[in-house]
Write a structure and sequence with these properties.
Layout lengths: L18 E2 L21 E5 L2 E7 L13 H14 L8 E10 L8 E12 L2 E10 L2 E12 L2 H6 L13
Antiparallel strand pairs: 1-2, 2-3, 3-5, 4-7, 5-6, 6-7
């Protein structure tokens, strides 16, 4: 991440051990195995960082051979939300500021990482970076807002469907 974004990550607690994290839910656009448009980002916890790997294909194309900027932003948003899973914090994105650095090429393994850098009341500040090997593709700074689990139920989730985030 850029120097102006660098901050020590906040601890993610012990509700999820090191290793793979479950998808948010089967139909999730970013990580769900039942969503045909999903790049199926596979996330894992590494200390106080969450890391996801995935490959984009023709479904995600913008200009020939490169990913659409929207899917790049979606991957950064997905990683930002996933860093809250070990804390079991139900939250929603209220701001996502993306800086595009270089094209995201299709058919390449991409890595997205995220860290929780600050918290103020219900606001959660998260930094994320998307890379292709040593190349930074994009960075993001997100603000999430903690919500009650009922927020998701009111909007269509079945109770317990989002247990990975406490909803």
């Amino acid at each position: 991440m850029e120097n102006d974004r660098a901050a020590a990550p906040l601890p993610l607690g012990d509700r999820f051990a090191e290793g793979p994290l479950p998808p948010h839910h089967a139909g999730c656009f970013g990580c769900g195995h039942s969503n045909p448009a999903s790049p199926r980002i596979a996330f894992e916890r590494r200390g106080d960082t969450v890391r996801g790997t995935f490959t984009l294909d023709g479904r995600h194309q913008g200009a020939p051979g490169v990913a659409h900027g929207g899917i790049v932003a979606a991957a950064l948003d997905e990683a930002s939300g996933s860093v809250l899973m070990p804390l079991r914090l139900p939250a929603v994105t209220v701001k996502l500021d993306v800086d595009f650095k270089s094209p995201a090429l299709l058919q390449r393994e991409l890595v997205v990482t995220s860290v929780l850098t600050a918290r103020s009341g219900r606001k959660l500040y998260i930094d994320a970076v998307l890379t292709d090997g040593d190349t930074v593709v994009a960075t993001a700074r997100a603000i999430f807002l903690e919500v009650s689990p009922e927020h998701f139920v009111r909007n269509g989730a079945t109770p317990g469907e989002l247990s990975s985030v406490g909803a």
